[in-house]
């Protein structure tokens, strides 16, 4: 199993946020250094590969390189922007709900998705901003003034996040001995894709009714770069009879996880781990939880199937059938599967690629 994060070397908690409790079970995620990855450190490359196959989640220390520090600064700016964005009235925000037009960009109100088998509804709101819109790859969508005024900041955050995604894809490409550029070339920044920034807000929950805020899921793209300050994110580690454990937010770090596309590209060698968001633990339960995400997804037309050209990627087994689906269709299907307002056949539990990930039974 992986080494425990050493909390002593690094700041334990975020200023102005109640401490994350020490008495809850946390995921022993590997902690990688962006500085070392940028420097081409072989041991760090090996850790990246291990994290990608074992659990598909890791911490990335952004504080030890200029590139990372600049992204941390952009994330700070967007956390503030997220607060003003969600402070708009519900009527105003609902003007930017484009789900009726089969688009996952824009606003998602609280309480539209089923989170568990009892049929309880979600307890968080989202705003998804398209990378293509901000980068000028597609026509701009209507957006509230606070976002219109912040296009430069959004662009800077997207560029910084995408650069990290490209670095990680490039390293994994090398580790897999795939033909040069295979993975990065499926995720070009100027190509049409479902890449997006997501702002998330979850209000404190009533003391006697604390429930799942965001239902269990695997991310459906390639790589997710997540900024958390208040706890609540949980992962279900691989293996039989495992239990949900928290991912402790670490100052100066992003939480990075692999999505379904990486599982499909590697026929189950890499893992897209199931996760969810519950009420924050301990004293943090009284806090409003904001989080900030960059989702990198394959370009829209990319078919989500095993990549050719690597001996390390397991072959398609006899009788195994690969679904014929491109990135765009996969994302729409997964994004809307639990929406009471959009689909008749609710699938709250969709395991994404769990069935082809090699190390778990759900
Ligand atoms: O808010 C978080 O910490 C996680 C959000 C998440 O998993 C998602 O939006 O896919
Ligand atoms: Fe997620």
TrEMBL record:
Domain Fe2OG dioxygenase, chain residue ranges per copy: 193-298
Q: Which UniProt keywords apply?
A: Iron, Metal-binding, Oxidoreductase
Pfam families registered for this protein in UniProt = 2OG-FeII_Oxy (PF03171), DIOX_N (PF14226)
Q: Which SUPFAM superfamilies match?
A: Clavaminate synthase-like
Q: Name one GO biological process term.
A: small molecule biosynthetic process
Q: Which domain of life is it from?
A: Eukaryota
| Name used for this protein in its record | Fe2OG dioxygenase domain-containing protein
Name the source organism: Penicillium arizonense
Q: Which family does it belong to?
A: Belongs to the iron/ascorbate-dependent oxidoreductase family.
| GO MF annotation: an example | oxidoreductase activity
């Amino acid at each position: 199993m992986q080494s425990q994060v050493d909390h002593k070397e690094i700041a334990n908690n975020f200023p102005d946020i109640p401490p994350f409790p020490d008495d809850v079970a946390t995921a022993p995620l590997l902690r990688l250094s962006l500085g070392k990855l940028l420097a081409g450190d072989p041991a760090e490359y090996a850790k990246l590969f291990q994290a990608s196959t074992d659990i598909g989640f890791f911490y990335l220390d952004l504080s030890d390189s200029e590139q990372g520090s600049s992204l941390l600064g952009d994330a700070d700016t967007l956390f503030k922007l997220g607060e003003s964005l969600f402070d708009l009235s519900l009527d105003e925000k609902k003007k930017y709900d484009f789900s009726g037009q089969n688009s996952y960009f824009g606003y998602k109100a609280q309480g539209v998705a089923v989170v568990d088998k009892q049929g309880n509804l979600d307890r968080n709101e989202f705003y998804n901003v398209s990378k293509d819109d901000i980068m000028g790859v597609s026509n701009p969508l209507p957006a509230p003034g606070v976002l219109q005024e912040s296009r430069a900041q959004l662009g800077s955050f997207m560029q910084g996040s995408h650069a990290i995604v490209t670095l990680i894809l490039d390293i994994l490409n090398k580790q897999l001995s795939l033909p040069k550029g295979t993975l990065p070339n499926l995720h070009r920044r100027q190509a049409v894709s479902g890449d997006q920034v997501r702002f998330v807000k979850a209000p404190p929950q009533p003391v006697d009714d604390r429930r799942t805020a965001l239902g269990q899921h695997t991310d459906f793209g390639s790589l997710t770069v997540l900024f958390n300050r208040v706890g609540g994110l949980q992962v279900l580690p691989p293996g039989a009879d495992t239990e949900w454990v928290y991912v402790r937010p670490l100052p100066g770090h992003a939480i990075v996880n692999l999505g379904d596309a990486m599982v499909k590209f590697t026929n189950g060698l890499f893992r897209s781990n199931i996760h969810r968001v519950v009420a924050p633990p301990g004293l943090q339960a009284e806090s409003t939880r904001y989080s900030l995400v960059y989702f990198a997804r394959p370009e829209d037309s990319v078919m989500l199937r095993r990549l050719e050209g690597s001996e390390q990627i397991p072959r398609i087994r006899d009788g195994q059938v690969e679904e014929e689906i491109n990135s765009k269709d996969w994302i729409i299907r997964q994004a809307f599967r639990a929406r009471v307002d959009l689909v008749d056949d609710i699938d709250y539990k969709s395991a994404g690629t769990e069935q082809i990930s090699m190390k778990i039974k759900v």
